[in-house]
Automatic annotation (TrEMBL), chain B:
Name under which the protein is recorded: NADH-quinone oxidoreductase subunit N
Any one GO molecular-function label of the UniProt entry: NADH dehydrogenase (quinone) (non-electrogenic) activity
Gene designation per UniProt: nuoN
Cellular localization per UniProt: Cell membrane; Endomembrane system; Membrane
HAMAP family linked to this entry: NDH1_NuoN_1
Organism: Halostreptopolyspora alba
Keywords on record: Cell membrane, Membrane, NAD, Oxidoreductase, Quinone, Translocase, Transmembrane, Transmembrane helix, Transport
Chief location: membrane
Quaternary structure annotation from Swiss-Prot or TrEMBL: NDH-1 is composed of 14 different subunits. Subunits NuoA, H, J, K, L, M, N constitute the membrane sector of the complex.
Cellular component terms (Gene Ontology): endomembrane system; plasma membrane
Biological processes per GO annotation: ATP synthesis coupled electron transport
TM ranges: 29-50, 62-80, 110-128, 163-180, 186-204, 216-239, 259-282, 303-332, 338-356, 363-384, 390-411, 432-454, 474-499, 511-532
Catalytic activity: a quinone + NADH + 5 H(+)(in) = a quinol + NAD(+) + 4 H(+)(out)
Enzyme Commission number, as recorded: 7.1.1.-
Length: 651, 561
């Protein structure tokens, strides 16, 4: 029984000819993971000796991975579309009897898309970090963790089975934990790291249980084995598995109700926020949902839940983003909201998968660009994050302003920029879903688009326009080239990538062998004339205008004004933390106290019985170990008698 | 079972060995052992003639070079093994015997010898380590502990370079023990292996009385068990008319000698098996023949403990596998229940007793007893898979355990103090020396059998083989026992990382190059065999080509005759 790999049935859409990896590029795709992993190992084990050059090594290795990913993409494009799902067995972990456990990767359009995003954006952020972390005494450790993250994330997306995926899933969680708490001398950072860790545990547990159910139901944890056999099991099981996977995705992607950690995670260094908490790791939930599409397609209830969770999160994140004065937290609210879009699209089923992934890719570019811009602002402003102490920075930091501005225009969905193409795709897919559900989801997406325009314009105006509200010792200056060049590259992506992917239906066609994609009409004329598209442009204008009236034309207070109850609620992250505390923490504490009582009185009685029994027998048996050779010899004689007796008595 | 196509009739071997023709000896296949033996003899001469100042470096160089040379020769022999091809007699594929069939060099032997050589090489590095001018061995073993004379030797910086020839002779025994193809050779190998070890055990630099007591105990009990072993040989000879394993195998199949007219000699065989089993079980330290292990492991100098826990255990199990799977292979139904009982006793009792141990070396000694129980489950299986599983387990355990003992040599109660014996003194090690504590944590997790370590694969292999052979209840006991053992391994990890140290906490002496490389090798082997065990497992498991031979023709046990 092959537990991990099952090459008979294959994941990709029918008809699938499972082609064994032919070229050296595909067979060696483990290099993608190995390069950054080696970097992390060298930097962590090498210690202070690698301080001088370690960060350059850490930049080069993900770049190498990126180059390899590009080669892999070229190789894939050279194959027939239906052959593009290539299982690569890295090695057989162990084979005992008829049980074989392989460590295998799956190279297909979906996984290679992620690999390119992770290594591409990841490399840019590594370069940026060289400048950003220049004065940090622990820069080497930082780069080691970043490399570790890249490796773990690649394991997550390249795995061909759920166990390996889970290994990567936990690996990125670990890297995220280490990096959020990187400045562990700050108590807030340590607390935030712990919080992210704990909330993620809840989601991880969900995913783990899902994997166990799948293993008992299907007898395998290979994607191909599980996803190819969804027709053979009952809907109840599939719904349970789907909901548990959704729980895992919610934890990793900061979707309701497990969203509370993401805003606190901004305590980590800004490149971390850009790479892990905006561009890549937080989108892992979306990847997972799209990857296990067949399960959700066979369990409509779970699928609808995904869409609803996405819609709710996209609104909640946007509302939070409207009220935060901390530039990174406002962007984090935006991240929540944008991932909400992707989750919504993934929950629409086959018509939404390509839109979800396309938005994920463009979001990776513009949101990383925005975060790097925010980091550049902080770099020039003595690590100030309060937007009420910014203002008028466009002259002091022209490059940052330009790149941030392009990212801004892209995320709010100005027509023909990247964000517009992909967000429009999600709105269109929502309305095409049909029925009242489709209308409601589409309306939520439209409303979110308006809110996005508002909060992003608010950030833009408060930071780069208006009066200078700087702290007295602030001397804003443009960042060094190592930081601006990645920002420029990301800005180019924010502008042009969407058109490249969506126009002419390229990306969806590329992805279609890996995801169960349905043909659906998506032509430019339709996008420009459909009522909801016009409405999207309308809410965009309204959002920008309101923001202009409140933050552009009128002066911005240097301290947070008292707001109405909506603003207060949004500032408090819609009371997510309070809800967690009241609903889980306090009852949890009470339960713990109760359990302690029960534990002391009841369980301990039993456990101590067993434990004491073991200890007592242990102590008793120790008595035989007298230390006298004569006793030992007697024991041996006794033992020999037993041995002889067992042999002889038998006949 | 196969008819032994090319072996000489039993009577021919049983006849007096004084012949006109000298026995043919294939020196090539014996070369690894001869190299080690020659090095041991030369080392004795060096003791006599080389100047004291340079003796240590010469001895160490000679010992390491000879072990390395023997390893290379072993590897060359592996390369010279004939590939299995259809039509070949299975014995040809399995290996060769030489020196009047008294030594068998086949695949299991070569794997065991290679493993023993590598483990001994690593142990020698530990033996050679000196910290602030002190080795782990007594300055002058002949002096009375605590006497003026002893102090003067310590001050003069005397050192025992006799350790090296002793280790080499013990190593020769270890190499011959699993290769012996008749009981007399095996007995000689057993004694060649044991006698130097008795001495080495008594050479600890600190707590010398304790060390000497351990040595005497080990010697007395070892002699006691040898007597059983020898008596068993006599009884089996009475049954089979030969001490050669292949002849014994054949004799069991054909019903034994007609010693008693009209009767059967089976009682001779059964009691003989039991007595031989006692001797071998003593060497591997199975309950109830394990009492010596905690005392000796604790009292012996730690580098010697490392050698005993790795190399000697591998050799003893190697011999045991050959005796039970090959010589007594046809009587498996007779001895299997006995090993069932011993394996269960070993796993359960040792795991339970280990729970309350406070001394780290005693703890590892009991842990070694439990692991012997796990390997016994593979012996019980008595299949090629069981053999492969046991061999893999032994190699994996050997590397891990040497690494663990190497860590122990570094952790002291205080600056220049003795080794921190009580585990409570290990509290807080994770903070002061994260790398060292991390390495030990990895070794302990491997002992506990956590996935991605070699321990997991090893346990999996032996348990899988046992289940396949129908010993499921035994495996259930094994899994429960390993849960108990996990408790005390994890307790040490918790102690190192989460407990407040008492006072200033343990003092760690900086790892020298030698100890450092030993720990590094242990970590590397533990991880490598855990993450990528396939090449080793594939080598050990029966080759597919052999399976393609006629079913009745394949050597069922994987040993040569």
């Amino acid at each position: 029984m092959a537990v991990f790999a099952d090459t008979d049935v294959h994941l990709a859409a029918p008809p699938t000819a499972a082609t064994e990896a032919g070229g050296a590029i595909l067979t060696n795709s483990w290099l993608l993971i190995a390069l950054p992993l080696v970097g992390a190992a060298i930097l962590l084990l090498g210690g202070r000796r690698t301080d001088g050059w370690g960060h350059w090594l850490a930049v080069l290795l993900p770049l190498g991975s990126f180059a390899w990913a590009v080669l892999t993409l070229v190789e894939l494009l050279g194959m027939a579309p239906e052959d593009r799902g290539v299982p690569v067995t890295v090695y057989t972990w162990f084979a005992a009897g008829d049980l074989t456990a392989d460590v295998g990767l799956l190279i297909d359009p979906l996984s290679i898309t992620f690999a390119l995003l992770i290594t591409g954006v990841g490399s840019l952020i590594h370069i940026y970090s060289v400048g950003y972390m220049e004065h940090d005494p622990d820069r080497r450790r930082f780069f080691a963790y970043l490399n570790l993250f890249v490796a773990a994330m690649l394991v997550l997306v390249l795995a061909d089975n759920f166990v390996l995926l889970f290994l990567g899933w936990e690996g990125v969680g670990l890297a995220s934990y280490l990096l959020i708490g990187f400045w562990q001398h700050k108590p807030s950072a340590a607390v935030a790291a712990k919080k992210a860790f704990l909330i993620n545990r809840v989601g991880d547990l969900g995913l783990l249980i899902a994997i166990m159910i799948m293993f008992t139901t299907f007898g395998t944890v290979a994607f191909s084995g599980v996803l190819g056999a969804t027709g053979e099991v009952g809907q109840g099981v599939l719904t349970a598995v789907g909901l548990l996977i959704l729980l895992g995705a919610c934890g990793k992607s900061a979707q309701l109700p497990l969203q509370a950690w993401l805003l606190d995670a901004m305590e980590g260094p800004t490149p971390v926020s850009a790479l892990i908490h905006a561009a890549t790791m937080v989108t892992a939930g979306v990847y997972l949902i799209v990857r296990v599409g067949p399960i959700f397609e066979a369990a409509p209830a779970a699928q609808l839940t995904v869409a609803i969770v996405g819609a709710a999160t996209l609104l909640a994140g946007a509302v939070i983003g409207c009220a935060k004065d901390d530039i990174k937290k406002a962007l984090a609210g935006s991240t929540m909201s944008q991932i909400g879009y992707m989750t919504l699209a993934a929950g629409l089923g086959p018509i939404g998968y390509a839109a979800a992934i396309a938005h994920l890719v463009t979001h990776g570019f513009f949101k990383a660009g925005l975060f790097l811009g925010a980091g550049s602002v902080m770099h020039g402003m003595n690590d100030e994050v309060d937007m009420r102490r910014f203002g008028g920075l466009r002259r002091a930091m022209p490059t940052t302003f330009a790149t941030f501005g392009l990212g801004y225009l892209s995320i709010i969905g100005v027509p023909f920029l990247s964000g517009w193409w992909t967000k429009e795709g999600i709105i269109a897919a929502s309305f095409d879903y049909g029925g009242l559900t489709g209308q409601l989801l589409g309306t939520a997406a439209l409303l979110g688009a308006g809110l996005t325009a508002f909060y992003m314009s608010r950030i833009m105006f408060m930071t780069f326009f208006g009066e200078k509200r700087w702290a007295e010792d602030a001397h804003p200056h443009e960042s060094p080239a190592s930081m601006t060049i990645p920002m420029i590259v990301l800005a180019v992506g924010s502008v042009a990538l969407g058109a490249v992917l969506v126009f002419g239906y390229r990306f969806a066609e590329f992805l279609s062998p890996a995801i169960h994609h349905h043909e659906h009409e998506f032509d430019l004329a339709h996008m420009l004339t459909a009522p909801y598209s016009l409405a999207a442009v309308g809410v965009l204008v309204v959002g920008v205008v309101i923001a202009w009236l409140r933050y552009g034309r009128s002066a911005v207070a240097e301290t947070t004004p008292k707001g109405n109850f909506v603003t207060v609620a949004a500032r408090n992250e819609l009371y997510g933390n309070t809800i967690n505390e009241e609903l889980f923490m306090r009852p949890g504490q009470a339960l713990t106290r109760a359990m302690v009582v029960v534990e002391d009185r009841v369980v301990d009685g039993v456990v101590n019985g067993v434990g004491t029994g073991t200890r007592d027998s242990s102590l008793g048996l120790r008595g035989l170990q007298t230390g006298f050779a004569r006793t030992y010899a007697l024991t041996m004689l006794f033992g020999a008698a037993i041995v002889v007796a067992i042999l002889v008595v038998r006949f | 079972m196969i008819p032994l196509t090319d072996s000489v009739p039993a009577a021919a071997i049983a006849s007096p060995v004084i012949t006109e023709e000298p026995p043919s000896i294939d020196y090539a296949v014996l070369s690894p052992m001869l190299v080690v033996f020659a090095a041991g003899v030369v080392a004795v001469l060096i003791e006599a003639f080389a100047p004291a100042a340079r003796r240590h470096s010469i001895q160490l160089g000679l010992a390491l070079a000879s072990v390395l040379g023997a390893f290379v020769l072993t590897v060359l022999q592996v390369g010279a093994m004939p590939d299995a091809e259809a039509g070949m007699a299975p014995e040809e594929v399995a290996g060769v015997t030489t020196a009047m069939n008294s030594v068998a060099i086949d695949r299991p032997t070569l794997f065991l010898q290679g493993t023993i050589l590598v483990l001994s090489f690593i142990s020698l590095l530990l033996v050679a380590e000196r910290r602030s001018g002190e080795s782990a061995f007594a300055a002058q073993a002949a002096t009375v502990p605590g006497s003026e004379e002893e102090r003067s030797h310590v001050l003069a910086g005397s050192r025992h370079t006799e350790v090296y020839p002793l280790v080499l002779f013990a190593l020769l025994g270890m190499l011959l023990f699993p290769a012996a193809n008749d009981f007399l050779t095996m007995f000689v190998a057993l004694e060649v292996m044991s006698l130097p070890l008795y001495l080495l055990c008594g050479l600890a630099r600190r707590r010398r009385l304790f060390s000497q007591e351990a040595a005497v105990k080990y010697f007395l009990l070892g002699a006691f068990s040898s007597a059983f072993f020898l008596f068993g040989i006599a009884l089996v000879y009475g049954y089979a008319g030969s001490v050669n394993f292949a002849d014994i195998h054949e004799a069991i199949e054909t019903g034994g000698s007609t010693l008693f007219v009209g009767g059967t000699a089976t009682p001779l065989l059964l009691v003989g098996i039991a007595m031989i089993a006692v001797g071998l079980l003593f060497k591997v330290g199975a309950v109830p023949f394990h009492n010596w292990k905690p005392d000796v492991y604790q009292g012996a100098p730690t580098p010697i403990t490392a050698l005993m826990a790795s190399g000697v255990l591998v050799a003893a199990f190697g011999a045991m596998l050959r005796v039970f799977l090959m010589a007594f292979g046809a009587a498996v139904a007779d001895w299997r229940p006995m090993l069932w009982v011993v394996a269960i006793l070993t796993m359960v009792l040792a795991a339970v007793v280990a729970v309350t141990q406070r001394d780290i070396k005693r703890l590892l000694a009991y842990s070694s007893v439990v692991h012997a129980g796990f390997v016994l489950t593979a012996v019980v299986a008595a299949t090629p898979e069981g053999l492969a599983g046991a061999l893999f387990y032994l190699a994996a355990y050997g590397f891990t355990t040497i690494g663990a003992f190497a860590v122990i040599t570094l952790v002291r109660t205080h600056e220049n103090g003795p080794e921190a014996a009580d585990i409570s003194q290990w509290a807080g090690l994770g903070r002061t020396s994260p790398l060292l504590a991390g390495a030990l944590a990895l070794f302990l997790l491997a002992f506990a059998g956590i996935p991605l370590t070699s321990g997991f694969i090893g346990k999996f292999a032996v348990f899988q083989a046992a289940v396949a052979a129908g010993a499921t209840p035994l495996v259930v006991v094994g899994v429960l026992a390993s849960a108990v053992t996990a408790f005390f391994y994890v307790r040490i990890i918790v102690l190192m990382y989460f407990a407040e140290p008492e006072g200033a906490g343990p003092s760690v002496i900086r790892a020298g190059t030698l100890t450092g490389s030993v720990i590094g090798l242990g970590v590397a082997a533990t991880l490598l065999l855990g993450v990528y065990p396939t090449p080793v497992l594939d080598t050990l498991l029966p080759q597919p080509v052999e399976a393609a031979l006629e079913p009745g023709m394949a050597t069922e046990d994987g040993f040569t005759r």
